[in-house]
């Protein structure tokens, strides 16, 4: 093997790996901080941390997952949400969305109010405490209903699937059938 053959083999084997090592990367910690700020601002839910992969290749359309860790006194490790992240450009601009585990309480409140109006012929104001809630399949929580100025009640909401579909039952009538609702994700 002569000198030119050696150079050719060297360039075929080592040059691509050297160039790959020089490819621009996005800092996963910075992506996590951005998601945390935006998530807390949009949902008003406190976040302990966001965990994203490190050294993400800065390539338009590159997708990866991060995890949001939110405190919850009832769950030892808190609540965890998975986030799908997509790089919008090679400078680190991102778009992200929560795939499962986050319900829009405004949608649930509207559906409770519609059910009361159509099935009970009564107008109520429903309140589920907040804008969004982190939930997982099998979780339950209560919402309050106020009819006029005096009648107050509660509705038990149960999450039935990972996408946020729920059933709810009016607690003032324990024998009532659970009402099904469409997914309540944002």
Description:
With 186 residues, the chain is α+β, with helices and mostly antiparallel strands. It has two domains: 24-98; 102-180. The chain contains three helices and 13 strands, in the order αβαββββββαββββββ. It has helices spanning 3-21, 28-43, 105-119, and strands at residues 25-26, 49-51, 56-57, 63-70, 79-87, 94-98, 102-104, 125-127, 132-134, 140-147, 151-159, 166-170, 179-180. It has a five-stranded antiparallel sheet, covered by helices on one side. It has a four-stranded antiparallel sheet with strand order 2-4-5-6, covered by helices on one side. A two-stranded antiparallel ribbon has the order 1-3. Strand 5 and strand 6 (94-98) form a beta hairpin. The chain is elongated, with a radius of gyration of 25 Å. It starts with a helix and ends in a 6-residue tail after the last strand.
Number of domain units: 2
Low-confidence stretches: 15-21, 174-178
Q: How far do the termini sit from each other?
A: 65 Å
Structural class determined from secondary elements: alpha+beta
**For this entry, what is the oligomeric state of its chains?**
single chain
Number of helices: 3
- What percent of residues are in strands? 25-35%
Main β-sheet, spatial strand arrangement:
8-10-11-12-13
Biggest β-sheet description: 5 strands, antiparallel
Radius of gyration, whole Å: 25 Å
How would you state the average pLDDT, rounded? 78
Shape: elongated
Order of helices and strands: HEHEEEEEEHEEEEEE
Fraction of residues in helix: 25-40%
Tell how many strands the DSSP assignment holds.
13
